[in-house]
Design a protein that fits this description.
alpha/beta; eight-stranded parallel sheet; 9 helices; TIM Barrel; 228 residues
């Protein structure tokens, strides 16, 4: 417990300093613990320390954890690539899906979300640097998907998720994150009721927060080495 508590304190301290530097409040940025390949015991420890949002990208692994931890009040985020044959289980077992990047998946999630579960929170994944090896919609596709999402039942468009280019150049990092933020603001100006900008991980959370991120996704630096 002490080890994971220390890691959490380290990440929260970095987030707080980044918020201060950006002139923002610490409570403006949510910590999403990326718990893929980590056992339920670690999730339980973090929950006891006040963390309630957890991200998974392997459906079968996530479903097992959800079953074991159903007594906890957790917010489960699906953050991986989505196959069409997995949408029913994703729609029925997660509170958030952050990796929607095409119309077919969006429509299936909306259709397969149980009405009794309330709206499914959706982030559209944007491939902001148009990298061929990465998933995500183009800027133009995001604008179209956002309009579509607003007209579908059982889902709630919350905002954007992005994984900008991997680079050690802070200027390029700032530029990529700023482009995502500008797209986020464009959605707002177009009348979309969005409030979530999920961008930034362990290596670049300070830059992401400086450029407007409202949710950072932290894995190894918080959870430790993967165990499963």
């Amino acid at each position: 417990m002490n080890r994971i508590a220390n890691k959490l304190h380290y990440i929260q301290n970095r987030m707080e300093k980044a918020c201060i530097a950006a002139g923002r409040q610490f409570n403006e940025v949510t910590l999403l613990a990326v718990s893929k390949k980590h056992p339920p015991e670690k999730i339980t420890m973090l929950y006891g320390l006040g963390v309630s949002n957890f991200g998974e990208n392997q459906l079968s692994e996530a479903l097992l954890k959800q079953k074991e931890l159903e007594h906890l009040h957790l917010q489960w985020h699906f953050i991986g690539a989505i196959q069409s044959n997995k949408t029913r289980d994703i729609a029925g077992n997660f509170q958030w899906v952050q990796s929607v990047d095409r119309e077919k998946i969006l429509r299936r999630l909306a259709r397969q979300r149980p009405a009794s579960s309330g709206p499914l929170n959706i982030c559209l994944q944007v491939n902001i640097d148009v990298e061929p090896q990465k998933a995500g919609a183009t800027v133009e596709e995001v604008l179209r998907l956002a309009t579509l999402a607003e007209g579908l039942d059982n889902i709630k468009l919350r905002g954007l998720m992005a994984i900008p280019r991997l680079t050690d150049d802070p200027r390029q990092q700032h530029d990529s994150f700023r482009k995502v933020y500008c797209l986020f603001e464009e959605l707002k100006k177009s009348g979309h009721d969005v409030d979530t900008l999920s961008m930034g991980m362990s290596a670049d959370l300070e830059i992401a927060i400086a450029e407007g991120s409202t949710m950072v996704r932290i894995g190894t630096d918080l959870m430790g080495s993967r165990e499963i």
